[in-house]
Specification:
single chain; about 120 residues; two-stranded parallel sheet; 4 helices; 4 strands; about 40% helix; about 10% strand
């Protein structure tokens, strides 16, 4: 999920959303054909009136040259979200007794130093 308060057009928002994969790749995802990453995004900046005012609506958008900061931010936010979910996840037992240990338990079990 990508949420922003930047004044962006639909096209600009789409470009920002596509950059979320940089955060996934930084955390080890290889993003293959069947991996199924789905990202939904929205901007809260512009309020569009429910009833027409009879005037042409003007919607502000940031300049294309200023998009780099948004691209960098979405990559970093996605990376942080993945790392946070790994650190806070708990041990899971699934169907047929399949188990997946928590990341934090593996760090402890194998005495991996945190840098």
């Amino acid at each position: 999920m990508v949420a922003t308060d930047l004044p962006v057009s639909e096209r600009q928002l789409h470009r920002i959303i596509k950059r979320s994969v940089t955060g996934l790749s930084r955390t080890g995802s290889i993003i293959t054909t069947g991996s199924g990453e789905v990202v939904i995004g929205f901007s809260t900046h512009t309020t569009i009136p429910h009833h027409p005012s009879g005037k042409i609506s003007s919607i502000p958008v940031i300049h294309e040259d200023d998009m780099d900061d948004a691209f960098r931010a979405i990559g970093e936010a996605t990376e942080e979200a993945v790392l946070n979910s790994l650190v806070t996840a708990s041990h899971v037992v699934g169907r047929d007794g399949n188990e997946r240990p928590a990341f934090k338990d593996l760090i402890e079990k194998y005495d991996i130093p945190l840098v």
